[in-house]
Structures are given as structure tokens and as C-alpha cells.
Amino acid sequence: MIVAVCGGKGGVGKSTLAYELAGALDALAVDADLAVGDLPRGRGPDLHDVLAGRAAPREAVRGGPVSVLACGRSLAGARAADLGRLEDAVRRAAGDRDAVVDCPTGLRADTGVPLALADVCLLVASPRRWALADAVRTRAVARDLAAELVAVALARVGEDPPTAVVRATLAAPVTPVPETPALATTLDGESSRPVTERAPETDAAAAVRELATSLRACRPYYDGVE
To answer: Which end of the chain is more exposed for a tag (fewer CB within 10 A), N or C?
Structure first.
């Protein structure tokens, strides 16, 4: 199963949640934001190289606490990347595992490509009411591309998050994800261990597990399992 993690607004922790969900699902995390990659990367080939035909998908997967197919950081690499190769690259890199794809933010032209190849999507939304319009537009793109919206992560919430308003607006289950240092450090440092390992008792870890459960519930349908 391929899961697209998308968002209408930047800076709400979309990449962090994509990485965390890949860890919770024992899946491959794929950084599909060709212009502004955020997921951890190591040495060797990356997604830019794969999409330019310079490396095999499996060759570019970096092991660690979470397996990652990271993206390059150069504009030249982004220009050389052939988005038509993305679906094959993701499926080959993931093998028999799920893949969690960190999509570009907003409604850029390249956002639709990972959404089009995904089986389901998870939308990361801001709790600010004025930001819901961006989330609604992103949901509409996902719907047009047949990426089923499974859940909404209401990111970086404080007390009394507008969960009911977001649920009614986006017509999907909503999981509040609290603002916490435990999540803020997920993509920092050498180990990049998921919060479900580093701080399993926190509310943030509980939110990640809840979102992962929603995604697992879709797996039998997309795997063709009765």
C-alpha cells in the first residue's frame, strides 16, 4: 500500500509525521518533495539519481531506525528528475512493504504525481481556521486523483483544538497531534529514532499510533486480502 502524506500549508510538521508513520508501520519513507527535501539522507544515491536513471531504486534506500528513500537537495537534480519514473521507483524501493510518501506542500504542479500513485492519503492540517481553506483544496485534489482520504492529522495543537470543526469541514476522522519537543527532534541528529521508540508514553506517540492504526485498517482492502 502506498500512503501519500500531504498538506495545504508548510511548516506544520508534515515531513516529521511522514517519517513517524513510516516508523510505526514498518514502512519505507519516501521524500517526494523534489525541490525541498526534508527527510534524513545519508551518503550515496538519492531519489534525484533514481528519477534521472543514474541509480536503481533499492540502491538509494538508506537503512536506519526508519528506511528512507531520500531526495536530493539541488535544483539541478530536481530538474533532471523524471516524475514519470516515480511510481515504479517507489514500488521497487518498497518491495513487499508499505511506502509512506512525503508529498510537496500545497498545490504545486508536482504535488499531484505522488497523490496519483497513492492508494490512500493522510492530510496534515493546521489548527488555525483560516488555514482550512488550503486543506480543503488539497483534499479536493486528492479526491480527483482517487487517493482516498483516510485521516487528518491536526498538527501542533494546543489546548482545546478545533477537532469537530476540522472533522466536519474535511469529512474525515481527525487526530490532534500536540506541539511537543519529542516530535520537534524527530528529524534531528544521527539516529532519527521515531517518537514511538524514544518517548512511547507521550501524547505525540499515542497520536502517531492512532494514525497508523487508521492506515493499517485500509491495508487488507488494498492488498486484496479477505
So the answer is: C
Q: Which amino acid is at 226?
A: E
| Pure H helices in the chain | 14-25, 47-51, 75-80, 86-94, 112-117, 132-144, 163-170, 181-184, 195-198, 203-216, 219-223
Query: Would you say 218 and 1 are in contact if contact means Cβ atoms under 8 Å apart?
Result: yes
d(CA 162, CA 132): 11
If you write DSSP's letter for every residue of 176-221 in order, what string do you get?
A: EEE--HHHHTTTSTTT---HHHH-TTSHHHHHHHHHHHHHHTTHHH
Contact 223, 1 (CB under 8 A): yes
Read off the pTM.
0.90
162-to-129, 184, 198, 209 alpha-carbon distances in Å: 8, 22, 28, 21
Residue with cell 502524506: 5
Report CA 68 to chain centroid distance, whole Å. 12
- Whole-number pLDDT of residue 109: 60
Pick the CATH number of 2-221 from 2.120.10.80, 3.40.50.300, 3.40.50.2300, 3.30.43.10: 3.40.50.300
Read off the amino acid at residue 63.
G
Q: What is the predicted pLDDT for the residue at 226?
A: 40
